[in-house]
Write a structure and sequence with these properties.
15 helices, globular, two-stranded antiparallel ribbon, 10-stranded mixed β-sheet, alpha/beta, 393 residues
Amino acid sequence: MARTLIAGVGMIPFAKPGQSADWDVMAEQAIRLALTDAGVGYEQIQQAYAGYVYADSTAGQSALYRVGCTGIPIVNVNNNCSTGSSALFLARQMIEAGAADCVLAFGFEQMLPGALGAVFTDRKRTLDHHLTVQERILGQDDTSPLVAQQFGGAGLDYQQRHGAPDEVFGMISVKARRHAANNPMALFRDPISLEEVMGSKHLYGPLTRYQACPPTCGAAAAVLVSPAFAAKHGLKAEVAILGQAMTTDYAETFTGRSMMSIVGYEMTREAARSVYEQAGVGPDDIQAVELHDCFTANELISYEGLGLCEEGGAERYIRDGQNTYGGRHVVNPSGGLLSKGHPLGATGLAQCYELTQQLRGTADRRQVESVRHALQHNLGLGGACVVTLYGRA
């Protein structure tokens, strides 16, 4: 199987709901940026995978037709918050299987203000298995947003196991804003103090408002190629996918009483284990990480799920600054979902964009020193988790 190379990436600055272009325009902009970055024309793309959550069927075609109509296969992907990386996962599989040599993955989202909620209220809940267990563990609470209950509940679960105080969760938001200050693509770039984070509106468990990612609109894209295609066309494809895995829920998610399991801790752990095995590297070999910080609680538990620190060691990892510049890993140099925003379909490809820039050495003021390996973690409840390891080609 051929190793997959990242030939080009494109991303537009994320925007608040109501302040963005239409979804198809955003997608077109990101796609054109990725094609230009790769140095290929759309006529060279052999397949395309379009990721989005809140749009109608064949929205991927509608977006791509703004770039060109070449008759290629276009597949639409929806895997909740891991949609963008699921599109990337499929594109990479096509390259490595030899089914195509030049594949486009892109994601976009045009969101509404406010907390995520159910779209279809006239039929059975998609997350019925998860919500049934959640209600058994936490009971019913009509005063807090549902997703905040899920991740806040995971934070409470972690605290019961390891005793991390609320302020440790808040420190993650402070770090996110500090990183985002150097990212022109991030939505929230102003510094924030721990006092401001902890004093913001309480959501659930250890979480406050400034510990939740904002709904945003945006788009990102990547052009993936085989080494043979890159050599034939003289492409400067400097970044390679060294390992990638997608996991879904395990039986223990629904048989136990763990909110950490409900929000995908085991999916994260097993996907990371598989990727390290594929690539022959471990957490100590990684310098930059973009992980799914939809809430600070998920970033904290993901440190351990990804093996960045030992189980129960997240508090010390945070207090010692091991998650930032000068530490063991620089986690979310982009500012992460907490500061950059979280347009669901675009998030996974925005993470790919950031880590590609880091490995190229073109991340400007947010550049991590001497990056050789970079890890991506994108999680969707319901569930799917995609972990990707990048290295220099």
